[in-house]
Amino acid sequence: TYRLRIVSKTTGFPSRLSVLISNAGRFNNNICYFCSEINRYKFNRKLTYENILNELKSKRYRPIYYLMGEESYYIDKIADFIEANVLSETEKEFNLTIMYGMDVDMTSIIHAAQRYPMMSEYQVVIVKEAQAVRNSDALSFYLQKPMKSTILVICHKNGTLDKRKKLAAEIEKTGILFESKKIKDTQLPLFITAYLKDKNVAIDSKAVGMLADFVGSDLNRLTGELEKLIITLPAKRNQVTPDQIETNIGISKDYNNFELRAALLTKDVLKANQIIKYFEENPKSNPLQMTLSLLFSFFSNLILAYYAPEKSEQGVANMLGLRTTWQAREYCLAMKKYSGVKTMQIISEIRSADAKSKGVGNYSISDGDILRELIFKILH
């Protein structure tokens, strides 16, 4: 007798598992198949970057990894890990094939995948820039009977596979279909601290804000800047500070978007105007479009914070999808300074400033004056 215990959360359990449970009686004569389906559901239900990497580190390999999406960072990290770790240096000489989408079609890729490894348990075939591959649907035929000794890695950047197509279902059935999405601005602080923690390096909270605001969500550029900071850390010191960022990346520790936001939160008119003056004198390091984008993101999130059922730091963090409550503190403080109506007006003014910066209804106002006018309207 086999008993299946299901723990259902208030949100319900995924439809695929529901179907399996409702049809459990049909598997009476093949309980192994039923259990394998349950295990496959458990195996595939959370395809995060971390889970995929942990699986690879445990040497649990799939026949195919189809990596797609707008964020190239995670695609490159997974592909690079497979390239570096699955085969030994000797095995790579005969069993590592790297192809580029502009130079091949799917038939060539399938032929490469169908080869047997030489003096190795596996061969690895990596297809970079796969978005340019012709006749990609032909991959479905290979996936009906993939080579168990081949690890096929397809890197499809700046786009996604249509998940409604048969090919997507075949990939999910056989291996991994992973979408690498752009991370939200609110997730950047956690990414920065986690990345440095993995390198046994701490970082000052102000320094986190400076980096997140200045670099933005381009993870390849962001990790490059973080590596630069790690290399330049003084001997016997393992914490990144605002001073170090100012010296090595070129962001002023006193005059930056992080400090401008802090001045707006406390309604420090003098500090806000000092920062505007610095921005005006250093336009290359502090472009208006970046400042407007960050202000728009902050006040848009502030509007959402007003709809949080509970206005505590935890409640706001839950509403905004923040993983830590300390990120919600600024929004809790801002709600005490700016009403919901005022916040809506601010968002409208930011949109107007953005239009002016692009020449709409503006023939003579400089970027510095546009920002100065906007900050005045926010503070008054």
Topology readout:
Layout lengths: L14 H8 L8 H14 L4 H9 L6 E6 L2 H14 L3 H7 E5 L5 H8 L9 E6 L10 H5 L6 E8 L8 H9 L1 E4 L8 H11 L3 E2 L1 H11 L3 H13 L7 E2 L1 H7 L8 H10 L2 H13 L6 H19 L6 H8 L8 H9 L2 H18 L9 H13 L1
Parallel strand pairs: 1-4, 1-5, 2-3, 3-4, 6-7
Structural commentary:
With 380 residues, the protein is α/β, with parallel strands linked by helices. It has three domains: 1-45, no CATH class; 46-179, P-loop containing nucleotide triphosphate hydrolases (Rossmann fold); 188-379, Zinc Finger, Delta Prime, domain 3 (Up-down Bundle), CATH 1.20.272.10. It has helices spanning 15-22, 31-44, 49-57, 72-85, 89-95, 106-113, 139-143, 166-174, 188-198, 205-215, 219-231, 242-248, 257-266, 269-281, 288-306, 313-320, 329-337, 340-357, 367-379; strands at 64-69, 96-100, 123-128, 150-157, 176-179, 202-203, 239-240. A five-stranded parallel beta sheet has the order 2-3-4-1-5, with helices on both faces. It is elongated and about 70 Å long. The protein starts with 14 loop residues before the first helix and ends with a helix.
What is the CATH class name of the largest domain? Mainly Alpha
What structural class do helix, strand and pairing data support? alpha/beta
Quote the beta fraction: 5-15%
Poorly predicted sequence stretches spanning 5 or more consecutive residues = 1-29, 36-45
The largest β sheet comes out as: 5 strands, parallel
* CATH architecture title of the largest domain: Up-down Bundle
Q: Count the domains.
A: 3
Number of helices: 19
* SS elements, strand count: 7
Query: CATH topology of the largest domain, anyone?
Result: Zinc Finger, Delta Prime, domain 3
One letter per element, helices H and strands E, the order comes to: HHHEHHEHEHEHEHEHHEHHHHHHHH
Roughly what is the average pLDDT, rounded to an integer? 86
Write down the overall geometry.
elongated
Rg over alpha carbons: 26 Å
Organism: termite gut metagenome
InterPro entries: DNA_pol3_delta_N, DNA_polIII_delta, P-loop_NTPase
Protein name: DNA polymerase III subunit delta
GO biological process, one term: DNA-templated DNA replication
